[in-house]
Each structure stands twice: as C-alpha cells, then as structure tokens.
Amino acid sequence: MRLAELNENKEAVVSALSGDNRFISRITSIGLTPGCKLSVVKNDKNRPILVYSRDTMIALNRKECEGIEVTEVKE
Amino acid sequence: MSNKTTIALLGQPNAGKSTLFNALTGMNQHVGNWPGKTVEKKEGSFTHNKKEYAIADLPGSYSLTANSDEEVITRDFIASGNADVVCILADSSQLERSLFMLADYAGITVPCFLLLNMADIAKEKGKNIDVKALEDKLKIPVVLLSANNKKEYKSFYEALEKAVTNKTCLDSSRLEDAYSNLEGYNELKAMIPEGVISNYSSSWIASKALENDSVVLAKLENTMSADDYKKVDDIRNAVQGAVLTGGAKFAWIDEILSGAVDSKKENVSLGKLDRIYTHKFLGKPAVILTILLGLIMSFIPAIPIMGVGMAFGSLRVPVAEALTSIGAPDVIISLLCNVVIQSLAFICQMLGFVFGVTLIFGMLEEIGIMARVSYVFDNTMAKLGLQGKSVMPFLVSFGCTMGGTAGSRVIENWGQKVLTIALAWAVPCGAAWSVVPMLSTIFFGNGVFVVIVAILITMLLHMWITAKIFGRGLVNAENKYGMIMELPPYHKPKWGALFRYVLGRTKDTFLRVVTVVMLVCVVFWLLSYSFVEGSEPILFRIGTAIEPVTKFFGMSWELFMAFIASSVGKEGALGVIGALYNGQNFSGAFYEAMGGGGVAENLNELLAANVSKPQALAFIFAITFNMPCVVALASTYQEIHSAKWTAKIAIYYTVVALILAMIAYHVGLLIW
Ligand SMILES: Nc1nc2c(ncn2[C@@H]2O[C@H](COP(=O)(O)OP(=O)(O)OP(=O)(O)O)[C@@H](O)[C@H]2O)c(=O)[nH]1
Fold first, then answer.
1. What domains can you pick out in chain B, each with its CATH number?
2. Which of B164, B224, B502, B604 is most buried as measured by Cβ atoms within 10 A of its Cβ?
3. Can you give the CATH number for the domain in which A35 is found?
4. Which residue of A has its CA nearest to B485?
C-alpha cells in the first residue's frame, strides 16, 4: 500500500520507492530506504505527512510521497 | 591564503554547521554569493595555536548527489583542492540518519574528520557512543561534543590538528565491498579510470553514475568513447541505482555503529506544543499567533534603541538654530540637519526594530519553532514557490518592511529568500497604514473601508503576480518540489551566542544601510534643494515638465513629487503635498514630516480643493505599493547582498506602483 493510506500510529516497512532521480536521491538521503521501519505520527489532509524513522521526525509533502510503498507491520 | 589551512564544513541540515561556524569565527565572517550562482557563500577565519585557519561553510542539503546548484558547488569546491581538510558533521542523537553524509563522502580522497554534534542530547536520550571504536573503524579522528558549548572545543581543535598533520582519509573499503554486491557496480567501476575528477575515487564516481547523477554522467560522456558510454547508460538504466546504493550506505552505517553505540529504545509521540502546531484546525492560528507574539516581543529589545534614534533626531532643531546663530550658510545647515542627522535618526529607529526581530525570530529558529511554521504553511506557500517559513517575513512586514527583511534570514535557500523579500515589499507597512486610512477618510469618508479591502486584495494579487515574475529566475525546479524535511526536536536557545551573533549582524546591517541611505538621501536632497535664492529645485522643474505624462497616471506634478518622496519615506509624503499646495518649500516640509512633525494644518482643505477623488485614489495606491522606504531598500541589499537583484526589485516596484495608480485612476474616473 501507499504510505499515505497508512493510518496514524501504524508501523510499516518501506517496500519500494518509485519516482524521478531527484526524489529517489532525496528520500534515500533522509533515511527512507527499502527495508527501513517507520511509524506514521500524523496524517491529515492538506498537510505534509509526519513519519518517524531512524530516530528522526520527517515531514513529507503528500504529493511527493506517492512514490513510497510500504507494508504494514501488525503488532 | 597559502599558509592558511582551509577547513570545509559538510553536514546535513540541523547538524549544527552554523552553530560551529559562528562559534569558531565570531565576528570574522563574511557572507556573499558563490560566483554566478544564486547560492549563499559563508566564509570566515580563526586562529588557534598561532596557526591561521580559513573556514568555508559548504552549501548543500542531505547528500552529495547533484540535485541542485548547492551540491554541485560543494563537490566542485572539494574537487578543486581548495579544502585542506573537510569536517563532516553528524547529529549524534540521530546518528543512523545523519551519518548518511559521511557515507556519501566515502571515496573522496580529501582528508577529513568526523564531528558528532549534540552530545548533550544524545546523552539525555541515553545513547552511549564509543568514539575510539568509531575512530578505529573509520580511520579518521572522531570528536563527540556539543557545538553550542564553546568549553568543549578543545577536542575539536585536537582532531582538526591531527587530521591536518596526518592527512587522515576515511576508510571506505567496507562500503566498496557492499557496493560490489550491487548489480552493475563492478562493471561500471571497471570502465571508469582513476582521476576522471580529481580527489574523487573511481569507486565514488561509479556509485554516483549508478545513482544517475547528472553531473557525473555528463563528465563520463565527455571522457569516454560513445560505445563505452552507451554501456554505462545500459547498466544504470537496468537498475534503480540510488535505491541500491542507499541501502548499501545504510547497511555500512549500521555496521559502523554496531558495537560502537548502544541506545535505549524510545517511544515516539508528539509533545504538547507539537500536538497544537500540527493540529488540523488549530495549527494555522497557533502559528500566526506565535509570529504576532514574536513581533510584539521584538519591540522589547527594540524600544531602547529606537529611543536613542529619536533623541538623536530631536537634535535637528537645536543644531540648526545653533548653526544659524553662528551664521553658517543655509546649504550646510540643510545638508547636516536634514540629511545627516535626519537619516541617522531614521536608521537608528529602524535598526532597533531589526535588532529585535533578528533576536526574537533567531531564537524561534533555534528552538525549532520555525520548522513547525514551515510544516504548517508548506501547502499554502508552495503555491508561490516558497517554503512555509516565508509567512513570517510577510506578517512582520505589516509592521515594518525592514523587520520583514531581517526576518527572512531564517530562510536558508538564497533564491527563496530573495523572492520572499520581493513579495514582502508588497505588504503595506506601518508607515503606509498611518498615511493611507487618513487620506482615504479625507476623500471617501466611510468609504475608507472599501479602500482598505481593495488594498488588501491588490496586495494578494500583487504578491501572486510578482511570485510568477520573479520566481522564474530565483527558485529553481529543485525547490519547487514539495517538502521532504526533518522536523528537528526542540532545543533550548543559547542566549549568549545568539546575542553576540545578532549584535554582529546588526552592526553589519548598520554599516551597509548607512552607506546606501546616505547616498540616496544626498541625491534626493541635491534634487530638491534650491541652491540659488528664488530659483526652483531640479526636482520641481522635472516634475512640472513631465506633468503631461504623470497626468496619465492620475497624478498632478505635486502628487508626483510626493510619490517620489514616498520612496524615501512614506511619512514624508504628506508633508510634501501640504507644502506644495501651500506654495512652500517642499523639501523642508518633507524632513519636518519625516522627523515626526505634523503636516500642514489646512491639509484637509488643501487636498479637497486641489485633488479630485480619482486622483486621490491613484495617489493612495501609488504610495501604498511604492518601494517601502530607503531603509528597506538598504536592508534588502544587506540581506541578499546582490546589487542587481535589489535594483531589479526597486525598479519593478516603482513601475508597478505607477501602473496600479493608473488603473485606480481610471477606475475612479468611471465611478465619479
Ligand atoms: N542541545 C544542543 N543543541 C545544539 C547543538 N549544536 C547545535 N544545536 C542547535 O541545533 C539547531 C540547529 O543548529 P544549526 O547550527 O542551525 O544547524 P545547521 O547545520 O547550520 O542547520 P541549517 O542552518 O539548517 O543548515 C540550533 O537550534 C542549535 O542551537 C548542541 O551541541 N547541543
């Protein structure tokens, strides 16, 4: 599923990235690579999504993160 | 330069580069632009153990991949051999992510050392970092410290000296091992000779080629045969290189950290304040409230400085009287009192505000609140090609454009900073608000509200169009992409360091502003002073001569003179009108009004008798959207350090103000 479809407070693992070179480079350099764990902290319409990953709170523009596929981790 | 050792600072945003840079260099720093680029260049120098060091803050964001000018500049600087040693910064409370820059650096052969910043926060979070173990694995000096605590810098200097003396190079062999398991990497590396780009190993170049780095690919295309380059293309097109190498880099980081760092698992949740700022409905009001509070707080440190300016300004009359009594010529008195004293007093008052704004909003930036502002207004401001933070200078500009200009300092990207300032000029400032409602009431009575609403709507349209016009040259495609940003944890501000920094910047601003303001004021004075008894000043002659043209914009020559005067200071415009319609010396009246003196008592009747409603409307729009004032012009120059862009903005505003006046005039003619 797409990252944006994930509800707040859910955990997931990044499964695939797609997009242009710049996007891939930006998103990997901030730490979101396939296999990396993240949790969704905030997911409101019209605001960037907030995710927490590798000890870091990251704000992602909604349109930008359409290219992030995740697999939800069930506790 | 030759006997100086040059250090380059490299690190992801929020790693603490500015903090380190400011602490090391103090007042010895210089901000300019990289030649021909819309990217800010920060350089400084310091001495330690009798040795001189030059230090360059390299621009750039989260990686070394050529996504924008910033990274290209950084890479070229390293390739040129200008840096003797590179200091790579990482945030020790978020080591895993922030070591990415180190991983991206691996393969570059310029000596380096690693600075793990934010030691205090890492400790608080219960992270234990074994510096010795990291040094053994990386083969470079590693320092763990808090950049905001100057007492800890001993270890920094030691690591620096060690890196310089021993020319310590980062051991990248384990990362290369990881790369060699990636599809395509080995073939690529075999095709790339050493030395294609100096100081970059072929393995680094191979990894960047795999990541589709445009600059590296262009370089390869130039040096390789067409057949070989075709192979490179085929290899990189077959894989998602950046995802692969990114994985390898993080695997390498994990390996480096394993055994060297142990930490407690922590739970993530937003703090109370962040729950408000990120709230669906409360977020925006909370941000606006924060900024307005900041604006009010800015007045606390500002008021004493403004007081000094005002006291200085009140010297004007006694000095003039004293000079007259000793029989000094009128030219000298006018120049000294009206230009020198008046401008200095005006500048001082503005600087007080700038000092307050820089201090308070610098503190909000330090704490991390500006990052929240960015988050909340990201969607809105992105429509103008700006980042969310730009909302702050806009709001501050309702008070004073110079304050807004100073506030734009928190915007890291130079192009976006210039665009923000260019748009902030369209926001009517306090001086406009003190003149416009009064004028409107004289002419339109209760219609004043309609005028104000029309002005606000025009402002929004103005900003939107200006963003389109200026955005093209200033904001490159990279920055038009949506936000991918770290929301840093809150930090306690360090008042001492911040205060020193702000004081330094205010001094800088003062020096530069004085030059520009004096220059403009002297020119204005030369044009408006009657040198020969009974003859009219030059400005008067020009004004009356071109009246047929200005009439088209809805302005009689008197109004046009006042419009010109309003680009120096809006408060002065009413003085000029009063004097001209009274047949008095307008330059004297201008300075009188700028100095806070009253305007002609019969201003109401004068205006009603001489100015029609459409003309009044034209004039109101003209002065509202004219260049804010000469001090704002000067501080814009100080902030963006580009005479070219400052001139562009100033000319653009003068022209647009006249166009708006013309539209207002013709709309007025239709109504009345
Ligand atoms: N607690 C703590 N805070 C620090 C330390 N070093 C820097 N900070 C704070 O961290 C924040 C970011 O530091 P900056 O120096 O602005 O970081 P930067 O790398 O220049 O970031 P950009 O300006 O975004 O490039 C500021 O609020 C600093 O006051 C430290 O060692 N300990």
1. 5-170 (3.40.50.300), 175-263 (1.10.287), 274-486 (no CATH), 512-671 (no CATH)
2. B502
3. 2.30.30.90
4. A59
Q: What is the pLDDT of residue B29?
A: 80
Residue B493 alpha carbon, nearest atom of ligand 1? 29
- Number of other CB atoms surrounding residue B37 within 10 Å: 15
> Of B61, B484, B489, which has the smallest distance from its Cβ to A60's Cβ?
B484
Say whether pLDDT at B1 is over 50.
Answer: no
CA distance B427 to B85: 45
pLDDT of residue B597: 63
**Structure-token match 């690190």, residue found:** B11
C-alpha to C-alpha distances, A26 to A19, B272, B395, B456, nearest whole angstrom: 11, 30, 31, 38
Q: Does B182 touch chain A (CB under 8 A)?
A: no
What is the pLDDT, as a whole number, of residue B134? 95
Residues spanned by the domain of A26: 3-72
Indicate yes or no: CB of B482 within 8 angstroms of CB of A30: no
Write the burial class of residue B264 (CB in 10 Å: 0-12 exposed, 13-18 middle, 19+ buried): exposed
Q: Cα separation of B539 and B557, whole Å?
A: 10
Residues of A in contact with B382 (CB under 8 A): 61
Q: Cβ of B57 under 8 Å from any chain A Cβ?
A: no
Any bridge partners for residue B51, and if so which?
Answer: B48
Give tens-digit pLDDT for B160-204. 999 999 999 999 999 999 999 999 999 999 998 888 888 999 999
State if pTM tops 0.95: no
Outline where DSSP puts E strands in B65-118. 85-91, 112-117
Residue B366 CA to ligand 1 center (angstroms) comes to 7
From A47, A55, A60, residue closest to B97, measured CB to CB: A55
What ipTM was predicted for this assembly?
Answer: 0.93
Sign of CA dihedral B65, A46, B395, B461: positive
pLDDT number for residue B347: 85
CA B391 – CA B201 distance, rounded (Å): 44
Residue B650: which of B668, B672, B628 has the closest Cα? B628
Provide the domain count of chain A: 1
Asked if pLDDT for residue B584 goes beyond 80, the answer is no
Burial of B601 (0-12, 13-18, 19+ CB in 10 A): exposed
Q: Which single residue is written with the structure tokens 């797409």?
A: A2
Atom of ligand 1 nearest to the CA of B20: 15
Residues 12-31 of B with CB under 8 A from A: 12
Which chain B positions have a beta carbon within 8 Å of A56's beta carbon?
94, 97, 486
Banded pLDDT at B479 (limits 50, 70, 90):
low
